[in-house]
Amino acid sequence: MRLKDAVLKVVKTAGGFTLMRASRWRRRRLMILCYHGVSVDDQHEWDPAFYVTQDHLRDRLRMLVNGGYTILPLAEATRRLYDGTLPARSVAITFDDGAADFATHALPVLREFNVPVTLYLSTYYCFVRLPVFDTMLSYVMWRGRNSGGDLRHVCEVAEPVPVKTDEQHEHAFELIQAVVARTNLNAEEKNALLPRVAAALGVDYEDIQRRELLTLMSPEVVRSLPSDIVDVQLHTHRHRTPRDRALFVSEIVDNIAAIHQIRGAELPLEHFCYPSGDYYGEFLPWLRETGVKYATTCVPEIASPDTDPLLIPRLIDSMNHSELAFESWVSGFAMLLPRRSEYRLDALRLQ
Ligand SMILES: [Zn+2]
Fold first, then answer.
1. Domain residues of the chain, as ranges?
2. How far is the CA of 97 from the centre of ligand 1 (A)?
3. What pLDDT is attached to residue 144?
């Protein structure tokens, strides 16, 4: 057991979590949790910060239900945060991006507990169903790391390009990016490199495609998500936030149009999440302009009625957080501990 967990265990046994979650301080506050992917296969081993297993998600929801937490839909939770009418131990759950595994692997677990979630959806890759090149390249190289294969042909060099260690992985990644830049490949040509990389490393790329790993849900699947527990909201069209007003606004406008096309024009779209957690002060008036009322960051804090509604913090739960650490967060206890500076809004970004 890590030292931090050993300390938390003592706190828990002494009733510290119970005291915190029942406090008046906690009652005025809202903990928003953030998830990305639920592992279909081995993605949680590849990227434990962004993928959790179904069992991990199930354990978290069970802990929240057994701990007497109130899991609210985000729209209700944010309204009541600022009204001052939150119920005890309020939590809201969000998923980012809209990966195919949301429908196949997250939804069945959410349904087991009938837990409401907000899905922040980037829409471009719903329609253009290509994987994000850099992410898929990195995953395929990781899958083939122990194959003994190498990428000299794809990298167009004479000497072997293995991918076994992190350093080799990074080097091969850079060589491939150099090929892409030198030969000026478009998105489709770039994606045609992926099966070549897979073949050189003995990875079954057809299987990856068939199981839609690292790919977003199609519009049909997004349309079929049950609206009693899934609220689809904004995450920009192309998962980017240009620091230019016109480009930024069109990201939101295109995202709104696409979600309305998929989920119906009457759906209110007032919730937004900053892609990659990147926020800057100039974004706030641009968001208001497009009708966004609430926006979430990835600053791991708990929201209070004093929180700016366009800079609401969220905790990214991951395989790297122990159950004790998770409990210390949702109870509010973690807020009493000294934390690193990344646990605060970055004033420089807000100037
Ligand atoms: Zn995202």
1. 3-127+218-350, 133-210
2. 5
3. 96
Centroid of ligand 1 to alpha carbon of 210 (angstroms): 23
CA 264 – ligand 1 centroid, Å: 22
C-alpha of residue 150 to centroid of ligand 1, in Å: 31
Q: Domain 3-127+218-350: give its CATH code.
A: 3.20.20.370
pTM of the prediction?
A: 0.94
| Stretch 181-199: mean pLDDT | 92
DSSP calls for 111-159: HHHT--EEEEE--HHHHS-PPPHHHHHHHHHHHTTTS----HHHHT-SS
Measure 23 CA to ligand 1 centroid, in angstroms.
Answer: 33
Give residue 235 CA to ligand 1 midpoint distance, Å.
7
Is the pLDDT at 347 greater than 80? The verdict is no
* Rounded CA separation 253/245 (Å): 12
Band (242; pLDDT cuts 50, 70, 90): very high
